[in-house]
Amino acid sequence: MGFKIGQKVVYPNHGIGIIEQIEQKQIGSTTLPFYTLRLAATNSVVLVPVDNAREVGLRSPITAAEGELLMKNLADDFNSPPADWKDRFKEFSEKMRTGDIFAVAEVLKTLTYLSHFKPLSFREQRMLERARYLVISELSAVCRKPECDIVARVDQALAAACAKHARRTTRARSAGANAGH
User: Fold this and answer.
1) What is the pLDDT of residues 2-40, one digit of tens each?
2) CA 67 to CA 65: how far, in whole Å?
3) Distant-in-sequence, close-in-space partners of 137: CB < 8 Å, separation ≥ 6
């Protein structure tokens, strides 16, 4: 899975970065190769051991076709999250750490939906913002369009997903109420 200098990559929970160099670092008595990665969001540099890149979740950005699939998934209904915010936060944190943009999109959809009904906790609000940034920045890189063009499409997709989920939960509640009569 070797990456090359100048290649765009995705670093889990931090988004798009560019491999600036591949350098040897002395760790104890061993010399190991590292990717030097500059993160687009913060302009900070991260060193990732070449041998651990897969375990860390370093990956190539999704393809344009996967970008379209991601947009479609963003507009789809989703599973209701755990009611207890601690359980929800744990589940969402695990999804965010995977680096899988489709899992991050699930977090984005669910937290966007919840934010329409109640204020999110500080930690959930930060996670919502992080998930939104990760989805928009990767789609922007993949579609080669400015983020401002992507934001409107993502917002439309999220609105569609929230509407579908609201209709489904309303139907489920009314079916449950009718069953009790």
Assistant:
1) 899 999 999 988 899 999 999 999 889 999 999 999 998
2) 5
3) 15, 16, 40, 41, 147
User: pLDDT tens digits for 48-73?
Assistant: 999 999 888 899 999 989 999 999 99
d(CA 91, CA 114): 15
> In sequence order, what are the beta bridge partners of 102?
none
At position 100, the amino acid (one-letter code) is D
Q: Which residue has the tokens 């890149």?
A: 53
d(CA 93, CA 13): 10
Euclidean distance between CA atoms 181 and 174, whole angstroms? 11
Which of 135, 138, 115 is CA-nearest to residue 125?
Answer: 115
Report the alpha-carbon distance of residue 69 to residue 63 in Å, rounded.
Answer: 10
Q: Which of 60, 127, 133 is nearest to 94 (CA)?
A: 127
Contacts for 169 with CB less than 8 Å, ≥ 6 apart: 80
Mean pLDDT over each residue of the chain, to the nearest integer: 89
Contact predicate 99/10, CB 8 Å = yes
**Residue 82, H or E segment:** none
Amino acid at 19: I
Burial of 159 (0-12, 13-18, 19+ CB in 10 A): middle
